[in-house]
Automatic annotation (TrEMBL):
Residues 5-165 form the Peptidase C1A papain C-terminal domain. Keywords: Disulfide bond. It comes from Oppiella nova. PANTHER family: CYSTEINE PROTEASE FAMILY C1-RELATED (PTHR12411). Belongs to the peptidase C1 family. The lineage of its organism: Eukaryota, Metazoa, Ecdysozoa, Arthropoda, Chelicerata. This is Peptidase C1A papain C-terminal domain-containing protein. SMART domains: Pept_C1.
């Protein structure tokens, strides 16, 4: 998808891109499998032969939360499943290994990830989001990060959130 994104002047690898054109692209073109066209976090030029082997499509998408409303994001994940979000991935966020990430990360939105659930850690009395990153299993806890939930919109987790149908 990054290789075949139609706007060559927009570096989706560095910015996380904008949800609207990316999701419209997936709706219109579909997705190939990871095995067929693996993500490499860089633009390689579109391989049209592999691009055309669609294994999944979406019917559409909608905004489910915004403005920092973690309650709306909670309800969206609870009622409808995973939600794609933009966050600020700070250097400390990028070097996360385990536990509940509690900042700092209060900068511009620069990375897209997927909230797949949430939990509660009784010893720390802290809720957390279960977030899947795109950097593979070598990142964090086997590709996931537990980010503090209800912590003042940590990393701007609830600023821009969408779900697909």
């Amino acid at each position: 998808m990054i290789d075949c994104y139609p706007d060559p002047d927009h570096n989706v690898c560095e910015s996380g891109a904008a949800f609207e054109p990316i999701l419209d692209y997936v709706r219109d073109k579909g997705l190939t499998s990871w095995d067929e066209y693996p993500y490499q976090a860089k633009k390689n030029g579109c391989d049209r032969d592999r691009e055309g082997r669609t294994v999944a499509r979406i019917n559409g998408w909608n905004w489910v939360a915004g403005g920092g409303d973690e309650g709306a994001l909670h309800l969206a994940v609870q009622d409808h499943g995973p939600s794609a979000i933009f966050i600020h991935a700070s250097d400390s966020w990028a070097s996360y290994r385990q536990g509940i990430y509690d900042g700092p990360c209060d900068g511009d939105l620069n990375h897209a990830v997927l909230v797949v659930g949430y939990g509660y850690d009784k010893p720390s009395d802290m809720g957390y989001w279960i977030v899947k990153n795109s950097w593979g299993e070598g990142y964090g806890d086997h590709g996931y990060v537990h980010m503090r939930k209800d912590g003042g919109n940590m990393c701007r987790v609830a600023d821009h959130c969408v779900q697909v149908s």
